Amino acid sequence: MFSPVTVIDRALLDTDRWFGTLTPERGDALIAEARVRAIPAGGLIYATGDAPNGLWAVIEGQVRLKGYPAAGAEFLALILRPGTWFGEVSTLDGGPRPHDAAAFGAVRVLHVPMAAFQRAAERMPALYHDVGRLVCQHQRIALDFIAETLSLPVGARLAKLLLGRLDDEDGVLHVRQEEVAVMLGVSRQTLNRHLRSLADQGAIRLAYARIAIVDRAILQRLARVD
């Protein structure tokens, strides 16, 4: 079911570090034909290989981008929370979707269809530059992650990931350990050893598909390892 963008929705979007930097005219043009859609838990917003269907933004809940680098392997590429935009690569280059975008729990998302984006960009070509900046923003996150993977020890990378990339407001990370292992580029056994060490130190508490942060100070100390 689709609904119009509310004042509250727009206020949330304006807090995003990308959308919030757009001029009011271009921001208005981008969402003039946008609609808000409810997605049930586990529902696909788009799938790997799909044709581009426009820009999206999370309004409520959590969306996860997942890739499949090899048969039977699943890669958790990014966790997206309210206010965050996604789907920009295929919107810009017209190529197929590189990831699945799936609802983690029930979510509400804003959708700017391809045709609506193209109409807005015809009137305001600077929107192509704006979306290019969004691509660069996400690319920088990916490059920083690669640099950390190559330079930091596993313990420091894990601490940074727990504090940042997967950090929920309640401090509970709803994620499977195999997903974290893939993101860190280590085996499940190596990850389990480091998680158990953090649990023994009192930094985290482990449960099935959940990692609860108990003591952030310990993680912050480990994350600062040179």
TrEMBL record:
Residues 152-217 form the HTH crp-type domain. InterPro entries: cNMP-bd_dom (IPR000595), cNMP-bd_dom_sf (IPR018490), Env_Response_Regulators (IPR050397), HTH_CRP (IPR012318), RmlC-like_jellyroll (IPR014710), WH-like_DNA-bd_sf (IPR036388), WH_DNA-bd_sf (IPR036390). It holds the Pfam family cNMP_binding. Keywords: DNA-binding, Transcription, Transcription regulation. It comes from the Bacteria. Transmembrane segments: none annotated. CDD domains: CAP_ED. Residues 18-119 form the Cyclic nucleotide-binding domain. PANTHER family: CRP FAMILY TRANSCRIPTIONAL REGULATORY PROTEIN, HTH-TYPE TRANSCRIPTIONAL REGULATOR ARCR. This is Crp/Fnr family transcriptional regulator.
